[in-house]
Design goal:
With 483 residues, the chain is an alpha/beta fold. The chain has 2 domains: 3-81, Flavocytochrome B2, Chain A, domain 1 (Roll), CATH 3.10.120; 108-274 and 309-482, Alpha-Beta Barrel (TIM Barrel). The chain is built from 19 helices and 14 strands. Strands 7-13-12-11-10-9-8 form a 7-stranded parallel sheet. The chain has a 3-stranded antiparallel sheet with strand order 1-2-3, with no helix packed on it. A two-stranded antiparallel sheet has the order 4-14. α5 (111-118) crosses α17 and α16 packs across α18 (430-451). The model is unreliable at 88-93 and 298-307 (pLDDT under 50). Residues 59-98 are annotated as: Disordered. Residues 1-75 form the Cytochrome b5 heme-binding domain. Residues 100-469 form the FMN hydroxy acid dehydrogenase domain. Keywords: Heme, Iron, Metal-binding, Oxidoreductase. Its cofactor is FMN.
């Protein structure tokens, strides 16, 4: 197809794009695109490949659009007649990461302001946004300080005896935290999930790529495997985070692909029948759509119920675990991610999962959702046997190595970290991620020494005071005395 013809279709009423040398009519898909109309409109009549590959696997467009919208290959000899990709507004000035030396980043929170200046507004908004007023996100951050330590003294905590190793989903690792699933990491840095997987392998920790990885899952696995081979180290695994789709065939294919690529665990996300109400994401989409002349920018009072579900399965129930487990393999580790109540933790344990993953999705889903520590306290009060039946892992708002230890004192096996490592990636690439991991390791070892322990297995609830947090949880005022 001649590029001059493609260039004519550059509006909301007729929108054609070129992806990997092929022409597609995406007009009817504008209102359905999860990223908003603006991302497509700015590429109308142009080669969208550079923008597309930031967030999508090669096959996504072929699987998403009906065959009737595949208009054929572009005539390469006419490429110069394509339109240029539109810019909704001038680029904001970026502060180069070098303006603050990486060596001066001494805590995880140091990476966020550097990343904010270094990455695009779209990327920062995507990472930082949360549901409604951000209450759940802010509660996540605040929860950790509401638990205090009770250290023991006059114990031998020689550095040579310090051991931070553990296992998660039965698989050994050097540290009791892992890189949690975060979608579209290449928005933050071109190396995206490939850099995160490499950093995880180099430091001997686990990494959970998202279903919506911006790097194909097999390439992420390849980068991880090649790094382990180079350093002759095996204490690092990949866990595949699964969003269950409307179409069972699509979900089954994702599971098969994860198995074939060598992923060592499956984290089935159960808190996302639809996408949460993220105001800043919506605001940015609307601003871009207006700037690009969208025919019908998203209007909050005209949103159709369920229209924010995308391809997610709203009908997912406990019964579906049977076919998911069958496809994944009964002998392979499986966790349920997004458990937010003791009742559901009990059901998950009864279902025989390897791990219960307590999470409110970084505060990005339900406004006023409970923090993972609040849920963990309820489990300890209402059904403590769960901690013996399966592993418990948590995430949400953790920024310090000492806070990881607080979770372990209360029975968690490990803590997942998402946003902080994305900020480190956006600020300094893989070197930033490695530095962030090293910061946490240093904090872990220092805090363990100050607590009077040398191994994670020595920690228990006697090392923490939960009275302040328990007092804020309805019906648990007297809980601390029952630990």
């Amino acid at each position: 197809m001649d590029a001059r013809e493609v260039a004519k279709h550059a509006s909301a009423t007729s929108c054609w794009v070129v992806i990997h040398g092929n022409v597609y009519d995406v007009t009817d898909y504008l209102g359905e695109h999860p990223g908003g109309q603006a991302l497509l409109l700015k590429c109308a009549g142009a080669d969208a490949t550079p923008e597309y590959t930031k967030v999508h696997a090669t096959s996504t467009v072929q699987e998403t659009l009906p065959k009737s919208k595949h208009l054929g290959p572009l005539d390469g000899s006419t490429r110069q007649h394509l339109r240029s990709v539109k810019k909704a507004k001038p680029k904001e000035p970026k502060q180069p990461p070098g303006s603050l030396q990486l060596a001066l980043c001494v805590r995880l929170a140091d990476f966020e302001p550097i990343a904010r200046a270094a990455i695009s507004r779209q990327a920062y908004t995507y990472i930082s946004s949360a549901a409604d007023t951000l209450q759940s996100h802010h509660d996540n951050l605040a929860q950790w300080s509401k638990i205090t330590f009770i250290p023991r003294v006059l114990r031998d905590v020689s550095a040579s005896a310090m051991d931070t190793s553990t296992s998660i989903l039965g698989q050994p690792c050097a540290l009791p935290f892992f890189i949690a699933a975060t979608g579209l990491a290449s928005l933050t840095h071109p190396d995206g999930e490939r850099a995160l997987a490499t950093a995880a392998a180099l430091r001997g920790i686990h990494f959970s790529p998202s279903t919506y990885s911006s790097i194909p899952h097999h390439e992420v696995a390849q980068a991880h495997r090649q790094t382990l081979q180079k350093i002759s180290f095996t204490n690092s695994s990949l866990f595949f985070q699964l969003y269950v789709h409307n179409g069972r065939d699509k979900t089954l294919q994702l599971i098969r692909d994860a198995r074939e690529a060598g992923y060592g665990g499956l984290l089935v996300t159960v808190d996302t029948p639809c996408v949460g109400n993220r105001d800043e994401d919506r605001r940015l989409k609307i601003e871009d759509e207006v700037a690009l002349g969208a025919a019908q920018p998203v209007n909050s009072d005209k949103v159709v119920p369920g229209s924010n579900s995308g391809q997610l399965a709203r009908s997912l129930t406990w019964a579906d675990l049977a076919w998911i487990r069958e496809a994944w393999g009964h002998d392979r580790p499986l966790a349920l991610k997004g458990i937010q109540s003791a009742e559901d933790a009990r059901l998950a344990a009864d279902a025989g999962v390897t791990a219960v993953y307590l999470s409110n999705h970084g505060g990005r889903q339900l406004h006023s959702a409970p923090s993972c520590l609040a849920t963990l306290l309820r489990i300890r009060q209402q059904c403590p046997e769960i901690l013996d039946l399966c592993e418990v892992v948590v995430d949400g708002g953790c920024l310090r190595g000492g806070d990881v230890l607080k979770a372990i004192c209360l029975g968690a096996k490990a803590v997942g970290l998402g946003r902080p490592l994305l900020y480190a990636l956006g600020a300094y690439g893989m070197e930033g991620v490695l530095k962030a991991i090293d910061i946490l390791k240093h904090e872990l070892e220092t805090t363990m020494a100050l607590l009077g322990v040398t191994r994670l297995g020595q920690l228990n609830s006697s090392y923490v005071n939960v009275a302040k947090l328990a007092h804020e949880i309805d019906g648990m005022d007297s809980y601390s005395s029952k630990l």
